[in-house]
Amino acid sequence: MGGAFTVNHLIYLAQGVVWTLALSALAFLLGGVAGFLVMLLRISRKKTLRWLSYGYVQIIQGTPLLIILFVIYFGLGVVGIEVPPLIAASVALMVYCSAFMGEIWRGCVEAVPRTQSEAAECLALTRWQSLIYVILPQAVRIATPPTVGFMVQLVKSTSLASVVGFVELTRAAQIINNSIFQPFLIFGIAGAFYFALCYPLSVWSRSLERKLNVSRR
Amino acid sequence: MRYQFDFSSVVDYWPSFLHGTLMTLQLTVIATVVGLAIGVLCAIGRRSQVRLAQLVCGAYVEVVRNTPFLVQIFFIFFGLSSVGLRLPIFTAAILAMVVNVAAYSAEIVRAGMDSIHPGQIEAAESLGMSTPQIYWYVILRPALERVYPALTSQFILMMLSSSVTSQIAAEELTAIANTIQSDTFRSFETYIIVALLYLALSILLRIGFWGFGLVIFPRRRKLGTPL
Question: Is residue B83 part of a domain?
C-alpha cells in the first residue's frame, strides 16, 4: 500500500467527471422523452392507459435504482445481447428518470387552473391543441424548479453506474483508492467534484422556486 | 435464443431472502429513528441565533444533499478503516444511513418549522411558556404533523437506497441477492424476486407510516387523511 496522490490521479478523476456528465446528460434526455410520454399516459382519457402508467410509476418508484440496473444489465445479458455498461446504465437511468419526471410533470400539468382548459374547450380547440398551446406553456413555468431539483438527484444517481463497471467519477475514485488507499482524500475529492456539479443546480432550483412564488403571490 | 425462466432454483433460497428483507427493514428503522432525532436538532440549529450553529448545520445539510450516497458510504467505511477504526460493516452502513437521513430530514423539518406563523410563537411567549416548551408544543409538533407525508416518503426512499450499502457487503437484501445469483447463475430471476420484495416492502412501509400517523396525530385521524 503506498504511493502518493499525484496530478495524474487528479486528471483521471477529472476524466471521470466528464463521463459522469455525459451519462447524466444522456439519461436526462432519454428520460425526459420517456417521462413526457409517461406524463401523457397519466393524464390520458383512457382508463386502461392511466392505470397502466400508474402501475409503471409505482413499480419503478418502489424499487431501488440499483436493482433496476441489475435487472436490465443481467436481463439484457440473458436475452443474448452483450450490453456495454454505458448502455445498461443509461437505460436503467432512463427508466428511473421517466417514472419520476413523468410524475413531477403530471403534477405540474394538473396544477394549471382547470378554467384554462375549459376556456380552450370553449374556443373549440382540440385536446391536443389545448395541451400544446394553452396548458404546456404554463406548466413549463411551474415544472422548471422541480425538474432542476431532480437533475441533482440524477447526477448523484449516476454514481451507481460504477457498480456495473462503468468508469465514471465514483469508479475512478475507487480504482485510485485500490492502488494508493487514501480514502479520506480520494473520496473527499470525488465528493467535492459531485458537490461542484450539484450545488449550483440546487441553488438555481431554489431561486427559480422563489421567483415563481413571487409572481404568483 | 429463447431464455428459459427457472424460478424454482432461486425460490429454494427463500430463508435467505427473508433474512435479507428483515435486515433491510432493521437498517431502515434504526437509521430513521436516529436520523430523525439528529435531523430535528440540526433544524433547530439552523434556526438558532448562534451564528456558528447556523453555519455548521447549514454546511452539513448542503454537503450531504449534494453528494451521492455511494461516495458517502465509501468515505465513511474506507476512511474510518484507514485511520485504524474498523467498524463492523453493519454499523458502518447504519452510520452512513444516519448521516444521510439526518440531513434530508433536517431540511424537511426546517421547512415545517418555517411554516409556523410567528404570531403563534409570540402568543406562546406572552403566555409565559419557556423556550423548550414553545419548541415542543408550538413549533415542533405542528411542524412535524405538517411535513409528515414528506418525511415518510423520504424514509421510504431511504429504505430503497439502503440497497447501496451492499457495495460494502452489508448483509441486506441486495447483498444477499448478489450471493444467491452467483450461487445459482440465475441472476435475472433473482433480481426480479428482489425487486418484488422491495416493492412489497415499500408498500408495507407506506401503509405502516399512514397507520402510525393516525395514531400519533389525532387531527389526521379526525380529518380522515387518505393513504
Answer: yes
What is the value of pTM for the model shown? Answer: 0.90
Q: What is the pLDDT of residues A162-199, one digit of tens each?
A: 998 899 999 999 999 999 888 999 999 999 999 999 99
Contacts of A174 (CB under 8 A, 6+ apart): A162, B74
Domain that holds residue B93: 16-223
CATH number at residue B115: 1.10.3720.10
Q: Which residues of B touch A88 (CB under 8 A)?
A: none
CATH number 2.60.200.30 is the correct assignment for the domain at A7-216: no
Domain range summary for chain A, segments of one domain joined by +: 7-216
- Cell numbers 427508466 label which residue? A95
For B157-180, write each residue's pLDDT tens digit: 999 999 999 999 888 899 999 889
For residue B131, how many C-alpha atoms fall within 13 Å in the half-sphere facing its CB? 2
pLDDT tens digits, one per residue of A96-122: 999 999 999 999 999 999 999 999 999
Q: Is residue B55 part of a domain?
A: yes
Q: Give the H or E element holding residue B48.
A: none
- Whether B3 is covered by a domain: the verdict is no
Query: Which of A62, A152, A184 lies nearest to residue B202, judging by beta carbons?
Result: A62
Percentage helix, strand, coil for chain A under 3-state DSSP, each rounded to 5: 85, 0, 15
Residue of B1, B67, B204 for testing the chain A interface, max A β-carbons within 10 Å: B67
Task: Count up the domains in chain B and report the number.
Answer: 1
